Amino acid sequence: MWKRLLQAVCWLPLLAAAEPSASPTVLRTAAQEGTEPKFLAAGKDRIVGLCIDIFRAVEQLDPGLRFVGDQHWKPLIRAYSELEAGIEDVQCAVQRTADREKRFTFIGPALYAIEYHFLVRSNDPIDIHSWDDVRQLAPNGVVLVNRGFAAGDILAAMGGIEVDARSTSPELNLQKLLAGRGRLYFHRGPGLQKLLERTGNTDKVKILPQVMYSAKLYFATSKHLDGKIVERIANALFTLEKKGDLERMTRKWD
C-alpha cells in the first residue's frame, strides 16, 4: 500500500507539468464595420477576412494569446473609441495618422499597403489625374467618405474639397453616389472590386484608375495594455512578416 502511495506522489509533479501553467491572455477586439477585406460577413453568425486570419496566425505562434470579440461587429468610430479607453485591447490594420498616434500604440511591421481611388457613376465621363482636377469640379464636386475613416483626414489636408462624411458604411455611400448626392466616393483598396460585386454595383459604378493616395496599415494596441503583452504581439507579427505569411494572407483577400 505504501509503495503504491509513494508511486502516486512521484507522478504528481509530472501530471502538473503536463497541464497548462496558466490561462491564455485574453485580448479584446472587434470586427470593424465597412472595412473589407479586413472583416467580411460570411453568413449570419460568421465573420472572416484578412484580420481574422492575422489573429489566428498570431495565436498559433503564441498560444498564450487569445483574441476575443472578432466575431462581433462594431462601427469603426466606436471600435477606435473603445480602444483608446482601454475597453478594447487591440485593433488590426489601422492607418497611422497624427491624431491616432496620440490615441493608440502602433506595433510590428506594416501589415499591408492600401491605395485610395475615386469611385464614380459608370455613366460619368469624369477624368481625374490630380487633386486640382477634383477642386475644379466645384460646385459639383462633393466627395463622399466614410465617417470616422482616415479618408476624411486625407481630404481635409488637401484643402479646397467639399466633403460629405455623414455616412458610416461603403454601402450607404454607394447608394448616395448613385442617387447623385455626391460626385465621387473616396475609398481605399484592396477590395474595391469585390465591394462592387458584393453590392451588385459592378455595372453602375466604376473605379477610376488613378491612385490618389497610399498608406500602410499597422496593428494598434491600447495605451493601457501591458508592455510585455504588446511585445509578444509585435514579435509574432514580425515572425509572420519574416516567413512571408503576411504577404500571402494579403494576396488571399485582394
Provide tags for this entry.
254 residues; D-Maltodextrin-Binding Protein, domain 2; elongated; 2 domains; alpha/beta
Question: Layout of SSEs?
Answer:
Layout: H1 2-18, E1 25-28, E2 31-32, E3 40-41, E4 47-48, H2 50-61, E5 65-68, E6 73-74, H3 76-85, E7 90-95, H4 98-103, E8 104-121, H5 131-135, E9 143-144, H6 150-158, E10 163-164, H7 170-178, E11 184-189, H8 192-198, E12 205-207, E13 213-222, H9 227-243, H10 245-253
Parallel strand pairs: 1-5, 2-6, 9-10, 9-11
Antiparallel strand pairs: 3-4, 7-13, 8-11, 8-12, 8-13
Number of strands: 13
How many structurally independent domains?
A: 2
Structural class estimated from helices and strands:
alpha/beta
Q: How can the largest sheet be summarized? A: 7 strands, mixed
Span between N and C termini? 67 Å
- Helical residue percent band: 25-40%
Low-confidence stretches: 5-20
Can you count the helices? 10
Explain what the structure shows.
The protein is an alpha/beta fold. It folds into 2 domains: 24-112 and 217-253, D-Maltodextrin-Binding Protein, domain 2 (3-Layer(aba) Sandwich); 114-214, Periplasmic binding protein-like II (D-Maltodextrin-Binding Protein, domain 2, 3-Layer(aba) Sandwich), CATH 3.40.190.10. The chain has 10 helices and 13 strands. The protein has helices at 2-18, 50-61, 76-85, 98-103, 131-135, 150-158, 170-178, 192-198, 227-243, 245-253; strands at residues 25-28, 31-32, 40-41, 47-48, 65-68, 73-74, 90-95, 104-121, 143-144, 163-164, 184-189, 205-207, 213-222. The strands form 4 sheets. Strands 7, 8, 9, 10, 11, 12 and 13 form a 7-stranded mixed sheet that branches. Strands 1-5 form a two-stranded parallel ribbon. A two-stranded parallel sheet has the order 2-6. α6 links the parallel β9 and β10 (163-164). α2 (50-61) crosses α9. The chain is elongated. It starts with a helix and ends with a helix. The relative contact order is 0.19.
